[in-house]
Amino acid sequence: MSPTSQQDNGQQNAAHPPNDASNTAPDSPSLTFRFGAWGAAIPLIFFVVWAITTSVMGLSSEIGLVMGALFGLTLGLFFCASRWEDYANGLFDGLTQPIGVVAIVAWFYAGMFAQVLQVGGLVEGLVWLGGISDMTGGWFVGLTFLLAAVFSTAVGTGYGTTVAFCTLMYPAGIAVGGDPTLLFAAILSGAIFGDNLAPVSDTTIVSATTQGADVPGVVKSRFKYSIAAALPALALFVIFGGSEQGGITDPAAVQSMQEAADPAGLIMLAPFALVLILALRGQHLLTSLTWGILLAIPVMLIAGTGSLPQIIAFDAEADGVMTGALVRGVEGYVNMGILILLIVGAAHLMTLGGTMEHVTRLLMRWIKQSMRRAEVAIWGIVALLNSAITINTAAEIAAAPFVRALGTRYRIHRYRRANMLDAVTSALGYIFPWGAPVLLGWSTIQSMQGTYDWLPSVSPTAVFPFVFQGWFLVAIMLLAAVTSWGLTFEDEDGNELKERPVS
Q1: Which residues of 442-481 are buried (b: 16+ CB within 10 A; e: fewer)?
Q2: What's the domain range around 449?
Q3: For a tag on the chain, would you pick the N or C end, based on fewer CB atoms within 10 A?
Q4: Cβ contact 435:56 at 8 Å
């Protein structure tokens, strides 16, 4: 999201695009590296290898990825043929670019909002809504996908959705005859839907900001892709979501589900509806989220679904003294914020070292004047980086400069670039077994076995073929690149055009 409010469908952004890793500051010195332009990529390459290795070994964590980025940046010093002082100044120029700072602040607000909704009992309300439908087997799995999609779209966090629904909907679904693997896949698929579409999602924010686009316009333009993937995904979950046990249920599990459900939590639909309306009407993201938080707290208190100490409280015995939903919302993004800044810095070093220019030039030789090849190249770069980097937002940050450079050269509209960037990263981050949300969901299910000893577990390697929303979304974006479905262009003022303008 750009630092200012968007009221003109991207015209302001077009006039004043935010700086990102693809733009070198005028006073930034150029850097030379051993091995030429590829030497400048050493910090990011090291980070990618580190991310893959730790993920495969089951050692992946946010702080571990932060250390990998720091190790990579330190290694880059020894490949820098320029003065180390110039390397450090170039890194600091990258760290201070608006893209990272704006995204981090937005994440803090989005995290606080999501936590307040959870404290207010929204998940329990959605579970109650599913319980009264009396659905079993595949129908319940399909319902889980829909509810997870609604929840993730509302709060903008796929990770939070994965935890909440693996905690509540997974045991309930097993109890009413849902297939464990398809049920887990439905939760991940619903998280993908919201992570890709929600105006308050970090991936939505980053994809729009890095391409100089406004969030409301981006959300409107990508709706057709999300729905095109969701409809067949829903059908497959309903058809194949029932277990071999059919409608056999566990009475104790059903009772536990009913005890956790509370229709009063549905009152929290009002705050997230307000956020969605304000964001889609062009209000700045921070404005929308602030009003959402300010409405959510009194609604929760009046409805009696939560208490003020659950929002914010002081506890001298707690590690951080302050506790509550607002604190957890910020804490959840601190390490991620640091990681994003380091990756933005590493990407900027690649710009200063000529890597971006070199890669772009190589791609141009292959693409020539083919718009189809240009979009396929964008799709491939995003998919490659995301398959290596386990956190989708981090992968998005790493790929964004390439997407912007190619898209700008071929006059591809910023909405289209943002959609290609976000759809692929949102999808693949929830598919690969080493992906952070997949491991998070798996560990949550494991922990729930302490409460429900009858609860089966699903390994990350077993679930990834069935994350239908993710696979369909990746395939649809590739199809869009090959067929030019939904492709639009822009003129020098950022106006959307059906035909490519003459250079």
Answers
A1: bebbeebeeebeebeebebeebbebbbbbbbbbebbbebb
A2: 98-345+354-497
A3: C
A4: no
Q: What angle do CA 497, 13, 225 make, to 5 degrees?
A: 55
DSSP letters for 295-363 = HHHHHHHHHTS--HHHHSEE-TTSTTSEESHHHHHHHHHHHHHHHHHHHHHHHHHHHHTTHHHHHHHHH
Strand 496-497 to 489-490 pairing = antiparallel
Best CA proximity match to 247, nearest among 138, 404, 391, 379: 138
Per-residue pLDDT tens over the stretch 290-346:
998 999 999 999 998 888 888 998 877 766 678 888 887 788 678 777 887 888 888
Q: What is the pLDDT of residues 199-209, one digit of tens each?
A: 878 888 889 98
Q: In this structure, is the dihedral angle defined by the CA atoms of residues 385, 215, 476 and 188, taken in order, positive or negative?
A: positive
The pTM of this model reads 0.69
Which helix (H) or strand (E) segment is 52 a member of?
A: helix 42-56
- Count of structural domains within the chain: 1
Instruction: Measure the CA–CA gap between 209 and 306, rounded to whole angstroms.
Output: 35
* Residue 260 is assigned to a structural domain of this protein: yes
**Which residues lie closer than 8 Å to 8 by C-beta, 6 or more apart?**
none
Secondary structure (H, E, C), 235-265: HHHHHHCECCCCCCCCHHHHHHHHHHCCHHH
Would residue 244 count as lying in a domain?
Answer: yes
Look at residue 304 and tell me if it is in a domain: yes
Residues in contact with 334: Cβ distance below 8 Å, sequence separation at least 6, in sequence order: none
Residue 235 forms part of a structural domain: yes
CB half-sphere exposure, 274, CA atoms < 13 A? 19
User: Using one digit for the tens of pLDDT, what is the confidence trace for 34-47?
Assistant: 888 888 889 988 98
Q: What is the DSSP letter of 17?
A: P
C-alpha to C-alpha distance for 342 and 46, rounded to whole angstroms: 13
> What gap in Å lies between CA 113 and CA 136, rounded to an integer?
32
Sign of CA dihedral 304, 306, 312, 316: positive
